[in-house]
Specification:
Blueprint lengths: L14 H9 L7 H11 L5 E8 L8 E7 L8 E6 L6 H13 L1 H4 L4 E5 L4 H6 L21 H13 L3 E9 L3 H14 L13 E5 L5 H12 L12 E2 L2 E2 L5 E4 L15 E7 L8 H19 L1
Parallel strand pairs: 3-4, 3-5, 5-10, 6-9
Antiparallel strand pairs: 1-2, 6-10, 7-8
Protein name: Peptidase
Cofactor: Zn(2+)
GO molecular function: hydrolase activity, acting on ester bonds; metallocarboxypeptidase activity; zinc ion binding
C-alpha cells in the first residue's frame, strides 16, 4: 500500500499530524441543504423531531436530530435506525430520510421506532469516515467516548430508556475505503494495512456473539429485489471476514466499539451498500437501505 502524504511510515500520528490532516479537509456538500431542509419537511404524524445535541466543532452548523414517537407504548417492540455514523456513506443518510418520508408511518402501529438519520454531519459535509479529531465514530461507542458523535448518540439512547429489540445501522462500502480511508488509518496508527477486495454488491454485518442468521437472511432476501448481493471472494470472505450466509459476515460489535454494539438489542445488523458498482445509482442505493430497514422491522414486529 502506498505511503500516505501525512506522517512518517511506521510512526503513529501526534497532534501535529492530526492537525495537518484536518487542514486538508473542506466541506464538499451542505448538511443544511441536503439533510436538515429535507428532514424538517417529512416528519410524519405521530412523531416529533428531537434535537439531542450538537457537534462542538460548530454547534449552530451541526445540530443533531432524531425522529421519535410522540408517545411510546411499552407493549410494542422498539427499534433504532441509525444512518451517517460514517458521514461519507451517502445512502445511509439519504436512505434513512427516504424511510422517514415514505415508510415510517406504516410501522407506527406495530413498533416504537427511533430514527437518527445523520450521526456525523461534519463527516457528511467533508465526505469523511473520521471526525475532525481523526477519530472514527464507528470505533468509538464506549463509555466517556472522545468522539462527540458517538457520545451524544449513546446519551440519547440511554435517556430514552427503551428496551430495544432491533438496531439497524446503515452503511456503505466504497472504493475510497481502499484509496483513502484505509491508507489514512494505517498512517495514523503507524501500521501497515493490505488492500482488501471491495465487494460488488450489498451485504450485512451481523453481531458475532448473536448473529441471528434467519433475521439476516430476511434482510438479504428483501434487498435482492432491489439490488444485487455481494458474492464471496475466492477465499470465501467479504472484506476479510468469513461469509456465514449469502451476503452476511460477522463482526464482534461490542468488542470493536461499533455503533451496532451500543445496545443490547437481540436483532442487530449493519447494512453495507456498494455505490461504486457499475449497476448502482443513488436511487438504487437509497432504495436498498429502505428495503433493508423494512425487512428488519417486518421480522420483529
Amino acid at each position: 500500500m502506498q505511503n500516505y502524504p501525512i506522517g512518517t511510515p511506521g510512526e503513529p500520528w501526534g497532534e501535529e499530524e492530526k492537525a495537518q490532516w484536518k487542514a486538508r479537509q473542506n466541506a464538499k456538500r451542505s448538511y443544511q441543504e441536503e439533510v436538515l431542509k429535507k428532514l424538517f419537511k417529512i416528519i410524519p404524524e405521530g412523531f416529533d423531531l428531537k434535537q439531542y445535541g450538537a457537534l462542538p466543532y460548530d454547534t449552530a452548523r451541526y445540530p443533531l436530530y432524531a425522529v421519535i414517537p410522540k408517545s411510546f407504548d411499552a407493549n410494542k417492540p422498539s427499534a433504532l435506525v441509525t444512518g451517517g455514523v460514517h458521514g461519507y456513506e451517502t445512502s445511509g443518510v439519504q436512505g434513512a430520510l427516504q424511510f422517514i418520508e415514505t415508510k415510517l408511518s406504516q410501522y407506527a402501529e406495530q413498533l416504537n421506532i427511533v430514527v437518527v438519520p445523520c450521526v456525523s454531519p461534519w463527516g457528511y459535509e467533508t465526505i469523511n469516515r473520521w471526525n475532525p479529531l481523526a477519530l472514527d465514530p464507528n470505533r468509538s461507542f464506549y463509555k466517556d467516548s472522545p468522539a462527540p458523535e458517538s457520545a451524544q448518540l449513546m446519551k440519547l439512547v440511554s435517556d430514552l430508556a427503551l428496551p430495544l429489540t432491533l438496531h439497524i445501522d446503515l452503511h456503505e462500502t466504497t472504493d475510497t475505503d481502499n484509496s483513502e480511508f484505509r491508507p489514512a488509518l494505517a498512517a495514523r496508527d503507524g501500521v501497515t494495512h493490505d488492500n482488501w477486495n471491495i465487494p460488488d454488491g450489498f451485504y450485512t454485518v451481523a453481531n458475532t456473539p448473536s448473529p441471528q442468521i434467519e433475521f439476516q437472511k430476511a434482510v438479504i432476501e428483501a434487498v435482492k429485489k432491489v439490488t444485487h448481493i455481494a458474492p464471496a471472494d475466492e477465499n470465501g470472505k467479504i472484506i476479510g471476514a468469513d461469509v456465514v450466509s449469502e451476503g452476511v459476515i460477522c463482526y464482534d460489535k461490542k468488542a470493536l466499539y461499533l455503533c451496532g454494539g451500543m445496545t443490547d438489542a437481540k436483532y442487530v445488523t449493519t447494512t453495507e451498500v456498494y455505490p461504486d458498482s457499475d449497476n448502482a445509482t443513488p436511487k438504487n442505493c437509497n432504495d436498498a437501505q429502505v428495503a433493508a430497514i423494512c425487512a428488519a422491522l417486518d421480522y420483529v414486529k
